[in-house]
Design brief:
Structural class: alpha/beta
Order of helices and strands: HHHHEHHEHHEHEHEHE
Radius of gyration: 18 Å
Number of domains: 2
Bound molecules: zinc ion
Largest sheet: 4 strands, parallel
């Protein structure tokens, strides 16, 4: 009841509880800063220089232009058309994503959506996606965390690029798996095999899908999702992530 009153009186509960300090260094924020102070923002390892257009890996090129990295040239990922990553998974970005996923700082999804969309707009590819698909969480995992971090990202990306989100019931996680982070690269593919299922084909068929996740490590999870979606008639599957 009390919470409802506050929500009505002061806007959303999220705004009410969002701290007026930088989430990374606790410095008081100025009027124009939101969530993160300018100093911490400048220290984030955002991908702004040349990178591989297929996998988003930062690379050095002579002319400063984007070009395929060595790995994508030799063995391009057949399941993922392109990867858009906002940052590298290191330093303050690693800390920020940890706050988001494990310390319930759910409001950070707005910030992450913003930096992912910045990257999409820089590449001029807003109109190449028909549908946002978050990597599904098993319901037991979702209950444990309280939210699906990828679906939260989709909710904030969707209005910024005008792309709808797939209904939760259309693409599901049907099997509980050991968290990938606890496994080595070789066991990850086997662990995730058969963990996802398309339940409502009509949403997937003929769509250019943007699969959304927080971080990319070995690509086993996104690869398996993509395999299922392409198997259900998706036209293409790309990947949008906060960091790689
Ligand atoms: Zn700060
Ligand atoms: Zn590459």
């Amino acid at each position: 009841m009390i919470q409802k009153f506050f929500t009505l009186a002061f806007g959303s509960a999220v705004d009410l509880f969002y701290p007026p300090q930088c989430v990374l260094c606790n410095k008081a924020l100025t009027g124009k800063e939101k969530y993160i102070c300018n100093d911490c923002f400048d220290s984030l390892p955002l991908i702004s220089g040349p990178h591989c257009p297929k996998c988003s890996r930062p690379i050095r090129t002579r002319n400063g232009e984007n070009q395929l990295c060595g790995i994508c040239r030799i063995q391009p990922d057949k399941n993922i058309k392109i990867t858009v990553a906002a940052a590298e998974y290191q330093g303050l970005m690693k800390r920020l994503i940890h706050l988001y996923k494990y310390e319930r700082q759910q409001f950070l999804s707005k910030f992450f959506a913003h930096i992912i969309v910045e990257q999409i707009k820089k590449k001029n590819i807003e109109s190449s996606f028909d549908l946002l698909v978050p990597i599904p969480l098993h319901w037991t995992r979702k209950r444990w965390r309280g939210f699906n971090q990828a679906r939260e990202l989709c909710r904030n990306i969707s209005p910024l690029i005008n792309v709808p989100i797939v209904p939760e019931s259309a693409f599901c996680r049907v099997r509980r798996t050991t968290p990938q982070v606890q496994l080595n690269a070789a066991s990850r593919t086997a662990n995730i095999r058969g963990a996802f299922a398309v339940r409502k084909n009509k949403y997937i068929k003929d769509k250019n899908i943007a699969l959304v996740d927080d971080v990319y490590t070995t690509g086993a999870t996104s690869g398996e999702c993509s395999r299922m979606l392409l198997g259900s008639g998706a036209k293409s599957v790309s990947l949008l992530i906060i960091a790689r």
